[in-house]
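Before the break, one more example. Copy the sequence into your notebook; we will annotate it together after we see the structure.
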Amino acid sequence: METEAVAELQGPATLGHWEKREPNIATYPPLEAVTRPAVDTDAAAYYLNRRPQTLRSWACFDSGPIKPSRINGRLAWPVAELRRLCGV
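Here is what the structure looks like once it is written out:
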């Protein structure tokens, strides 16, 4: 009985090609509430309503409206610039 309840919570082990997985949607606080000086690429993409790969392309080619800092090889997008771009 207990294993049936666990199986129901976990769902099917594999999905058929016609079934879609639920997207992994992270929730981010409003941009006005962010107190850190910079955010990661996923958060910046969320605030700018772009895909994370678009922001990585901007960083690679220096072609976007905002330039990230690189910290140990990772991209850090300045919150002040995000607020300026979003008009917040």
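The longest strand covers residues 74-78. The CA atoms of residues 5 and 11 lie 10 Å apart. Try to locate both features in your own notes.
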